[in-house]
């Protein structure tokens, strides 16, 4: 059975690195746990780090957080679906919102549950996912300002989630100006201006963040240390908190070219004969006990740089190990680094064991 392992020490060091960055600048932050897919073993590790605010896009995962520690502030990080309103109010202290109708439903449910539900109003800043259009923000805010049992915790935005739009100092200044505009118009104070996710960390490190932007939601950087501007790793952070280990179940010398009539494989792909003639002959192939049901090959990378991933079917992955200096045997585990999207697939799979190292 393939397994994914969390390195506790590297996670602790990444968390401490981020916590220092944010606290030294007077910034509040929360851990985005959605990649963990509600895995209780790993959620306990996050809580043990000292995290007091956890964000997720699945209410079932926030329910687990509340069961582990009811004092943690839980944040639902997408506009709630109508059918989930009751659960949102029950298990999320805060939710991101963009629709007046939805906030009205939250208000009504909060009254029923005798709770005050906090909301963040998300503003469209160019990435074209969720968000209120800036020109409509004042009218929007006015309509929800006095809704019973609703507390407007702040405003926020997302970058790099759909269209790849990156945060810039100018965009964060614009977000802070929305705060000033609302506070002046309604004579109120907005506690949070939530400036995005891990993608904004390089701006924070350069001190290019407007002081009014005082809250961030961090997942990718915590688990992978990734600088989303350069594609590299943030200096001082680890990029391998998680590793995948898949077991070898066959090693055989086989032809490089398939034989017989070629059609689509199970993934809908067709083997291309273009250029194959130039590398005829055979190669030493290893089959691993993991497939498309659990991961996508483009989101994992073998630590052995001489391994070539050929392709995968639903439950197995085929590799060319001809040039490897490792003498692989049946039963050996092959380690892989994983990317964020690779982690989402693997952690969502019930067929990949989760461990701590």
From TrEMBL:
<dbReference type="GO" id="GO:0030170">
    <property type="term" value="F:pyridoxal phosphate binding"/>
</dbReference>
<keyword id="KW-0413">Isomerase</keyword>
<dbReference type="InterPro" id="IPR001608">
    <property type="entry name" value="Ala_racemase_N"/>
</dbReference>
<protein>
    <submittedName>
        <fullName>Alanine/ornithine racemase family PLP-dependent enzyme</fullName>
    </submittedName>
</protein>
<feature type="domain" description="Alanine racemase N-terminal">
    <location>
        <begin position="7"/>
        <end position="225"/>
    </location>
</feature>
<keyword id="KW-0663">Pyridoxal phosphate</keyword>
<dbReference type="GO" id="GO:0005829">
    <property type="term" value="C:cytosol"/>
</dbReference>
<dbReference type="GO" id="GO:0008784">
    <property type="term" value="F:alanine racemase activity"/>
</dbReference>
<dbReference type="InterPro" id="IPR029066">
    <property type="entry name" value="PLP-binding_barrel"/>
</dbReference>
<dbReference type="Pfam" id="PF01168">
    <property type="entry name" value="Ala_racemase_N"/>
</dbReference>
<dbReference type="InterPro" id="IPR000821">
    <property type="entry name" value="Ala_racemase"/>
</dbReference>
């Amino acid at each position: 059975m393939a397994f994914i392992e969390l390195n506790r020490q590297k996670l602790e060091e990444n968390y401490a690195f981020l916590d220092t960055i944010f606290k030294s600048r007077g910034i509040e932050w929360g851990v985005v746990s959605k990649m963990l897919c509600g895995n209780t073993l790993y959620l306990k590790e996050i809580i043990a780090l000292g995290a007091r605010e956890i964000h997720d896009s699945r209410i079932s995962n926030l329910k687990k957080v509340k069961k582990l520690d009811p004092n943690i502030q839980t944040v639902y990080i997408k506009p709630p679906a109508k059918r989930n309103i009751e659960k949102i109010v029950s298990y999320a202290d805060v939710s991101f919102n963009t629709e007046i109708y939805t906030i009205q439903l939250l208000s009504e449910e909060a009254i029923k549950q005798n709770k005050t539900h906090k909301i963040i109003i998300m503003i469209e800043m160019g990435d074209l996912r969720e968000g209120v259009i800036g020109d409509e923000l004042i009218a929007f805010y006015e309509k929800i300002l006095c809704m019973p049992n609703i507390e407007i915790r702040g405003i926020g935005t997302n970058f790099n989630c759909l269209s790849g739009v990156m945060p810039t100092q100018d965009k964060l200044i614009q977000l802070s100006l929305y705060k000033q505009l609302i506070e002046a118009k309604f004579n109120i104070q907005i506690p949070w201006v939530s400036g995005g996710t891990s993608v904004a960390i390089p701006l924070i490190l350069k001190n290019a963040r407007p002081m009014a932007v005082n809250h961030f939601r961090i997942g990718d950087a915590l688990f992978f240390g990734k600088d989303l501007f350069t594609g590299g790793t943030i200096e001082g952070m680890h990029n391998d908190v998680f590793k995948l280990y898949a077991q070898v179940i066959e090693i055989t010398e086989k032809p490089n070219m398939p034989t017989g009539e070629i059609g689509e494989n199970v993934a809908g792909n067709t083997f291309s004969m273009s250029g194959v003639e130039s590398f005829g002959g055979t190669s030493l192939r290893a089959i691993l006990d993991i497939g498309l049901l659990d991961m996508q090959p483009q989101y994992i990378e073998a630590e052995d740089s001489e391994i070539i991933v050929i392709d995968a079917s639903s439950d197995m992955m085929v590799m060319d190990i001809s040039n490897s200096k490792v003498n692989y045997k049946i039963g050996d585990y092959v380690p892989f680094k994983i990317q964020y999207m690779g982690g989402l697939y693997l952690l969502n799979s019930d067929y990949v064991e989760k461990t701590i190292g």
